[in-house]
Amino acid sequence: MYDTPASGKTAVTNEVKIAARKVNVFYGDTHAIKDVDVEIEDKTVTAFIGPSGCGKSTFLRCLNRMNDTIDICRVEGLIALDGEDIYAPSIDPVQLRAKVGMVFQKPNPFPKSIYENVAYGPKIHGMARTRAELDEIVERALRRGAIWDEVKDRLQEPGTGLSGGQQQRLCIARAVATEPEVLLMDEPCSALDPIATAQVEELIDELREQYSVVIVTHSMQQAARVSQKTAFFHLGNLVEFGETGQIFTNPHDPRTESYITGRIG
Amino acid sequence: MTLFAFLILFAAVVIGYILNLRAARAIRAGGTKLHSLDGFHGGFSALVTLVPTFFFIILWLMLQGTVIESMIKAGLPDGTLDGLGTGQVQLIMSEIRSIAGGRIFGTPEDWKLEAAERLVSLRSTSSLLLVVLTIALTAGLILLTRKTVRAEFRARQGVERIVLGLMVGCATVAIFVTIGIVGSLVFETYRFFEMVPFTDFLFGTSWEPQIPLREDQIAAKGAFGMLPVFLGTMVIATVAMVIAVPIGLFSAIYLHEFASPKIRAVIKPVLEILAGVPTVVYGFFAILVIAPAIRSFGTDLGLPIAPNTALAAGLVMGIMLVPFISSFADDALAAVPRSLRDGSLALGATQAETISKVLFPAAIPGIVGGILLAVSRAIGETMIVVMAAGLIAKMTINPLDSVTTVTVQIVTLLIGDTAFDSPKTLAAFALGMVLFVMTLIINIFALRIVRKYREIYD
Ligand SMILES: Nc1ncnc2c1ncn2[C@@H]1O[C@H](COP(=O)(O)OP(=O)(O)OP(=O)(O)O)[C@@H](O)[C@H]1O
Ligand SMILES: [Mg+2]
């Protein structure tokens, strides 16, 4: 019924990149994430699936501390990146976010030129010493975002003037440009057509060679196609986490089964 | 009596409403389906009675004075008003009015007493007539609308049309008032330029409007070059903006981005209080605190400083504009979508980088619009400069000197005896015109910019 995952058949165990233990998230009195334990491996694509409002985005935002920007949000538990607690006082969230990049559900290009959008991260992190180096970084990022051919002649035009799908790929290019170690993608393809979706999926597969990628998606097919690990969330609980192939062909939990066969959510 | 007319109108509105409401209910009770709700039938009668009668009463009250006066004049013995100027005629009329009101000074001539008597009787006739006509009009309108109550009558549409008409009327009032103001300004300015050449006014470097009012008075000849006055306005406005822009912007950024909710809860109301202080009070502050401080500071440094400096007025005006600019900047920052800030933070940018590289550039059009509006307020501000700036026009851009402004000059030109036929008083209108054109241009620019930046995010 689903495509077999790209390389999910062989269960290679990679190093653990991010480990979460007993993570609870509250928005004021709302308990959005309940006791979630998960291990995200390096050089692996992990998919988060689950019905709307189950806390996928919330959990994703814990991994790069974007929840810090929401006043009423409180995170409890342990989340470690390469064995280091990212909520420890010694950790600077700014440096953490440089390592853990993010693509949002809604495209959010800056009201700047296409070039400046992509060059923004590399510039603030001092990744390029010369203009030529920066040009190179921008071009590589745009190519990886599968949008280079469409924008190479209009790099100085505003990024906000692109179509929704183009904007989303620009945002992917922008996130990739800073060379993060982990890339969090919150429904990156929800505004894309099938061709651009395929290109982004190809990019994700390519990124897997160097990074760890976490993708939230509502498309079972996409989760099955791109990921090696899948986590199923339901009402703030992590119901099941395992090999993508196993989750889709032989789920242990009845809730997982009803969701992937289209009975919940 | 006038009150009585309004009471009748009120009663008629209520009666018409109830009559139609009842009639509509009766039809409904009879089993017929009505197009409009009962209340709309009542409302239709109320509005049809109210609007024309109300305007009738207002019109009557506006016109009755003039009509009665001309009737009195026509009834005076032949030749009494011959060869008298408008001022003298007005004097006689006001004397007649005060006699009619019972305030008699000395022994007035018989014809004046007679005229006063006639005035009293004409006034009471007029009031009586007003009441009678109001009764007739409202009764007619009630009967007319009572007939409209039928099952298929579209009372709701009728009510909606009348209300729409009223709204259009209100909207056009603003337009007509604007046209009237601009028209009178243009007219008086034109009269001024008949007496003083256009180029003398625009490019003259000397402003001495104290011209002789009578032939035998000894006074300067008068000069109407607006440049020094204009320059004074610019100096003070510049000082004000130099103070207001950085303080306003930084306080907005601080409040919006860094301040904890507790601090914000204190500072925001304080800024609002600052915005609510009357400009007269700012004027006191300038005279009593700022000007002496500047002067003593200057004497310490050995600088000669005028008692009324452009600096003092400009500083205080700047303080006045701080809340204006900060609230505009705050709105502009708040209008930048949250997703942009998140996008920047997620790339590992610090808060300062996010503000200076993403939020601020995105908010800049809104901020610039706010600054321009503040500039036009600074240019048009009157009270502070009347109190704290000087009166003598000087060609200087030294903020430590005493300067005068366009608004100050308008005020001084129009204070005292004002006959609107000498260049001295008409010059005020020419200056007003200058001010108007300047602020108009700035506002148009500001609104353009603000609108443009709204388009980006909508
Ligand atoms: N900023 C917030 N303030 C308060 N509650 C929030 C906030 N963001 C999310 N929530 C709540 O947390 C819960 C999880 O939301 P979340 O956005 O993580 O869901 P999701 O799984 O990403 O859903 P979707 O698939 O629709 O994006 C929801 O009940 C939501 O109402
Ligand atoms: Mg979500």
Structure characterization notes:
The complex is a heterodimer of chains A (265) and B (458). Chain A is of the alpha/beta class and 265 residues long. Chain A has one domain: P-loop containing nucleotide triphosphate hydrolases (Rossmann fold, 3-Layer(aba) Sandwich), CATH 3.40.50. Chain A is built from 10 helices and 10 strands. Chain A has a 6-stranded mixed β-sheet, sandwiched between helices. A 4-stranded antiparallel β-sheet of chain A has the order 2-1-4-5, with helices on one face. In chain A, helix 7 (194-207) links the parallel strand 7 and strand 8. Chain A is globular. Chain B is mainly alpha-helical. Chain B folds into 2 domains: 2-153, no CATH class; 223-457, MetI-like fold, CATH 1.10.3720.10. Helix content of chain B is 77%, strand content 1%. Chain B contains 15 helices and 2 strands. Chain B has helices at residues 2-29, 38-75, 86-100, 110-148, 155-195, 198-203, 227-258, 261-276, 279-301, 310-335, 338-346, 351-380, 383-388, 406-414, 423-457; strands at residues 207-208, 223-224. Chain B has a two-stranded antiparallel sheet with strand order 1-2. In chain B, helix 3 packs across helix 4. Chains A and B meet through helix 2, helix 3 and helix 6 of A and helix 11 and helix 12 of B. The complex binds adenosine-5'-triphosphate and magnesium ion. Adenosine-5'-triphosphate is lined by residues 27, 30, 32, 50, 52-58, 70 of chain A. Chain A: Residues 18-260 form the ABC transporter domain. Chain A: This is Phosphate ABC transporter ATP-binding protein (PhoT family). Chain A: GO terms for molecular function: ATP binding; ATP hydrolysis activity; phosphate transmembrane transporter activity. Chain A: It comes from Rhodovulum steppense.
